[in-house]
Amino acid sequence: MVAKTFKGLENVLADELRQLGAENVEPGNRMVSFTGDLAMLYRANIGCRTALRILKPIYKFYAQDADELYNAVKDFAWDEYLSSSQTFSIDATVFSEKFRHSRFVTYRVKDAIADYFTEKYGKRPSIRLNNPDLVFDVHISDNEVTLSLDSSGESLHKRGYREAQTEAPINEVLAAGIILLTGWRGETDFVDPMCGSGTFLIEAALIAANINPGIFRSSFAFERWPDFDQELFDEIYNDDSKERPFEHKIYGSDISPKAIDIALRNIKSAAVGKYVEVKTQPLQSIEHAPHEGSGGILVTNPPYGERISVDDMEALYRSLGEKLKNVFKGYKAWVIGYNTDLLDAIGLKPSLKFPLFNGALDCELREYVIFEGTYAEFRKEGRSVKNEEFKGERNPVYKRRDFVPTVDANSEERKPRYNKWRREDDGERKERRDDDRRGRQPRFRTEGKPKNALEEKLRKPYHERRKDEEDRRRFKSPGGERMTHDGQDEQQRQPVVHNEARTSRMVRFKQPRLAADKEQPIIHGRRNSWRRNDLPVKEKGGDDNNNE
Predict the structure, then answer these.
(1) CA quadruple 162, 354, 277, 259: dihedral sign
(2) Per-residue pLDDT at 168
(3) Coil, strand, or helix at residue 504?
C-alpha cells in the first residue's frame, strides 16, 4: 500500500505507520510504502495525521504511449472491482516524458474502462466527480504505470471538524506534521499567538490526547468496496484504548474577533474544548506567557503578505521577535513563513531551518530556542539548542522501489523498451526500428524495389526529400511545367526563363497617391511611409555625374 503526504513529512508519516502496525515501511518522495492487511488499511485511514490518501495498488504495467496505456487498462478485469451500475472517478499523477498531460491520461484510462464494460455488458459505469462509488488513482513514472484504488475518497486533511474557516487557513495535515516535527507530544503547554481558525490548537489537542483524527469523518471510500468488513471497521473506529490524559493546556489568541469566533466553533466541533483556551488579543499586547518559568512550546503561522496582509508586515515580525525574547523565555518557538526577509526581521538566530511547502508556496520552518542570559552561560549549564527529536531531513535520498508489473515481465505485450538498442542472439547490437513496436506494421516496405513513386519518396531520409522539394521549386522545364524525376543530371535541367507578361500579371505596382497638401505620399500596405522633403533635390541645370 502507499500513503501520500507533503514533501518533508515522509519520515513523520513513516513513524506513524510503524506505530499503527505497518510492515516493510519505506519512505519515498511525498509518499510512504508499506504492507499490511485489511485492518491495517482501516487503521491507516483513521489514525494517520500526516497522510493525505491511502492507496491500494491493483495493477502495474509498462506503457510507452497512449495506445499501450489504453490497451493495457482495457485488458484488466474491471468487473472484479466495479459494476456497470456504479460511478467512478480517476485521479492521475504523471512524471514522464512520454505522457506530459495528466488530464489526457485520465481521459484515456476512462475510455478504456468504459469500453471494457460496453463491449462486455452493453452498458458502462458513469463518471462522477463528487462522492463516486470508487476512486481510481493512476501514477505514471517514465513508462511505469500503477493503477490503485483510493481507499480514502476525499483527502484525509478534511478531518470533518471544521465548521468554518478564515481567509487563509493552514492545511490540517501540514499543521499536524509541523507539530510532530517539533517532537512535542503534550509534555508542556502549547501556545499559538496568531491562531486564526484554530487549526494548530485543535491538531495539538488531538496529538496530546492521542485522539484519532479520522473519527470526525462521515465516510471513507473503502466503505463502498465489495470486500468492506463492517464489523472490523466498527471495532477499529470505536477503539479508544490508546487515548491518554493531557495535564497541560493549549492557549490561542488572535487580533480578529471573527477569527476567534470561528476557532471556538471548530474547537467545539472537535470536542477538545477542555484542553484549549482562546481569546481576542493582539500580539503586541501579550505581556505574560502562560505559567511563566515552566517553559513550553510556541507554534505559529503568521501572515505571509500573500492572501492575508497587515499595514506593516515587517513591524509585525519584529514584534513577534520582541515578544519571543522578552515574554516567552524558556520556550521553544517554531515559526513557518514564506518571505525569508520577514523571517529575518524577527531578529533572533534560528537553531534550525527546514523547507516545507504550504500549498504552492515554498516556505521555511524555523526553530528558536529562547533562553535568559548569554549563549555562553546557556552552554555552561550543559544545555544545547540542537533538537535531537527533529524528524525532518533536508536532502533525503530515497531508495527506488522495484517496479514489478502485474503481468509476466517476459511477456512481449508488456515488455519495456528502455533504449534504442537491442541485442540479438548472436551478440550483435542492432538499432531498434520503429516497426519493432508491438502490433504496429511498417507503413511502407523497406526491402525490394519500390512499387510506386510515393513509396520511393518516403523511403528516402527526410533531408533528401526536403532537398528534392527545393529542387522542384528552383528548376522547371522550358514550357513552365514541373520536371519529373526521370534520371536527368542536374546540369541538364534549365532554369526558368524570365517571362515579362507573367511577372506583370503577378505583381501589380501602384503609384503612391499624394495627400491634399502634396507633401506626404500615402502608400497603402506599408508600415513606414516616407516624405517628399526627405528625397534628395536635384539642382536645375546640374548633372549628377559631374557634382563637385
Answers:
(1) negative
(2) 79
(3) helix
